[in-house]
Amino acid sequence: MKAFDRIIFGLILGVTFGIGSIVTTELANIAVRDSAPRYSVNIINRASAGALNDFAENKLIDWFFRAQAIGITGASAAAGTGPTSLYVGLFTANPTDTGGGTEVTGGSYARVAVTSSMANWAGTQSAGSTTASTGTGGTTSNNGAITFPSPTANWGVVTGYAVFDASTAGNMIFWTALTTNKTINSGDAAPSFGAAALTFQIDN
Questions:
Q1: pTM check: above 0.70
Q2: Who has the most CB within 10 Å: 81, 101, 116, 183?
Q3: Cα angle vertex 172, ends 167, 176, to 5°?
């Protein structure tokens, strides 16, 4: 490659890289001037997608769990707010990210609805907070207890829980295994997750 061509090629990569038609045209011109090139070009590998920053994490938490407008410049008004309610369910065989698992059935079992609001889900700055998220951890948790109906039949050994967008069927959005499995039998006290027992984290 001639010195003149190397200079032009360097300028093209530095100035016009990413504008496909310009790059293609100029590279073709270089090839004509040096019809028998004796060089190879190493293109920098693509970078991995960057992590969400605190601003984005806070906006997404407040939009999805806490019924706040997305608040990102240029976002469509159609984005509105997230789900009006989230529904917590229990599993005796945990699902995977693609679904499945065995949800508890019978014995008066029902998913528990939690209205999306700043009162019900904490801001990212601290457990129990009820103001707009300002934290750095991308994490929210339930501000109040989430209590299921009293079992009127054996529910079995509960191994995990999930959050859905509907009281029955619907789409599973989050799931996780319990730290300790819990056997729930007929006549037991109503199963309950205490305040801040369920935590959800975005990106971190």
A1: yes
A2: 116
A3: 110
First to last CA, the chain: 47
- Give the integer Cα–Cα distance in Å for 78 and 94: 34
**62: pLDDT confidence band, cut at 50, 70 and 90?**
very high
Q: What is the pLDDT of residues 166-195, one digit of tens each?
A: 999 999 999 999 999 999 999 999 999 999
Compare 94 and 82 and report the one with higher pLDDT.
Answer: 94
Domains of the chain: which residue ranges? 1-46, 54-201
Given the structure tokens 């129990």, which residue do they identify?
128
Residue among 196, 197, 203, 50 at smallest CA distance from 123: 196
pLDDT greater than 80 at residue 13: no
DSSP string, 55-119: HHHHHHHHHHHS------TT--GGG--S-SEEEEEEEEE--BTTB--EE--STT--PEEEE-STT
Residue 18 makes CB contacts below 8 A (sequence gap 6+) with: none
